[in-house]
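Figure S4 source data
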Amino acid sequence: MVWCSVGDVGSDVLDDVIGWRDGCITAIDQTALPHRLAVLRLTTVDELVDAITTLAVRGAPLLGVAGALGVALAVRQAEREGWDAARLEAEVKRIADARPTAVNLRREVLAVAAAIPGGPGAVEAAALAVRDTAVEVSVRLSERGAAFLTGECGERPLKVHTHCNTGALACLGWGSALGVIRALRTRGALAHVIADETRPLLQGSRLTAWELAQLGIEHYLAADGAGPFLIARGHADAVVVGADRVAANGDVANKIGTYSLALAARRAGIPFVVAAPESTIDAATATGADIPLELRADDEVTSFQGVRTAPAGTRALNYAFDVTPADLVTAIVTEDRVLRPH
């Protein structure tokens, strides 16, 4: 795994979050932001899996694209190193299994893997088609979500609360929830954004605030625990979040801390909207109870930037995601439709 300069991947960094160049994957290293803009050059399956598990590459739709490109990467590596079919299949499975909660990763890996019999060219074409589709989907989803919110809340500048990171870094294009915010701004219907810091890895303060600053959108950062109180005090007209998986009954898995915002939105009587592509809806998963929730390492909570902040021996319950029941969701907005789960 090597780093290359931003200039190597294009002038608009939000348009170059992930790509395929000379048989390698290029991707912004999200662990380096906001202090440093670094681009990873991934040449092996090991490097890709490491980038996914360490959250250098993250966000449900982006993971789908990374998985798709990962199959092309695996086919290239198989040619270089003389893998047999069984080894290639095992490496593709490693990519699909790198993170369990977001359904997009496995779905896109399997879709592109179906092109392997057609050879490397067919696999690369299928993977790049996944990337192009993700960009197009994000714009359609964003515009539909903005139209829905203005219909629910009225044609006025809205104060929007969001959680985790759901912009170009996570989804490509305009993003999902952050894309809806971007579309509201283009309509003249955005007052400001409140972004939760998103403990323990601070995707809100490191990534969402960075993207909002890049876009010139007025925003405020809030501690995760402050979110429900701010909603209760009228600092938000709506909550808009993304999703890593939506069960068939409308239950939503998203970054830990989402559930409390849904409860607060219901109490305050404001819309709680999930913006997610159709690929995030998993008809094979009946309810939220069936969604596998990633439990990550203790030290993400008990330490910060390598310095231990909790007493030795303290353990953490570090769930990366929670599940918001369908009856707390006002609507799920995709690129094709608006679903009301209840």
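Figure S5 source data
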Amino acid sequence: MSAVLPSTAHTDDAERADARLAWARAASGDAALHLARASMDAGFRSYWRGDANGLSRIVMDSPPALEDVRPWLRIRDLLERGGVRVPHVLARDVESGFLLLEDLGGATCLQALDTLDADTLIDAAIAQLLRLQAITPPDDLPAFDAALLRRELALFDDWFLGRHLGVTLSDEESAGWDAVQAHLVGAMLAQPQVLVHRDFMLRNLMPVEGGVAVLDFQDAVRGPIAYDIACLLRDAFHSWPDAQADAWLARYHARARDAGLPVPDHAQFVRDAALTGAQRHLKVMGIFARLHHRDGKPKYLADAPRFLAYLDAVVPTDPALAPLGALLDRHVRPRLVAG
């Protein structure tokens, strides 16, 4: 997430820009290369596009003092070895935080959705996901354990309910919310554990020849097998019709089973995906509230009704989620409708 930079930022930016351009020209072999901003990462990482010897290239700039490029590189290399389509690295200077990458284009799958066939797109995304999940997570990869899952759920309570809506839960509501968290965490920890991207959705996929490429994978963990497909089919920024999403989930399940991945039977997997999705929806609502109140990025909260709709589809199916339904009805729904 964004942060306040020191007062020397303008000087540092100019020095960094000079160093970035000099490195890019040397790495690409084009002394006439010029760079223009392509996009900004959620953290301190930035991306720059330039034409080098007639070929478009991307320079990733990850200032070492602010954001170490090595975690990104480590997961990228792991995924590529496993057959996942990720950006090719053409040159790297880890100590300086510069990478020269292939240019996958300017539009993500989310931005290009109107020009793509949805069924073909999801098929391609599933193909990449199956390759990703077949990779054995490194022993030292962080786990999506109870502590991490609880920290994520706390974002909903602290930022969405507390900071955004100004809600203080009663003792009874707090007890119910604790029970819901325990239920969701237990359901996720009980699932088979595989390599998890953690943000496997349309805006982190790029349309490429023969399918899609995967981006934004640096926060990968070992976690529940239903997580990434729930993320894809209940996207934070685009809603699919329920029947279509259910059909794609069944397709994924069949392909995962055929690929030898440790999916449970279909009925159990549908339940796992629903509960895993609920945990994620609550977390993202908290993150979007934090982006608004802490980081000055209000646009994300416009998607809050999407997550309420997702939760409305899950809560009635599981009696253990009844306290969550009561919270949503009492504190969230009236505010979203009023807004």
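Residues 1-11 have pLDDT under 50 and may be disordered. Residues 10 and 174 are 46 Å apart (CA to CA).
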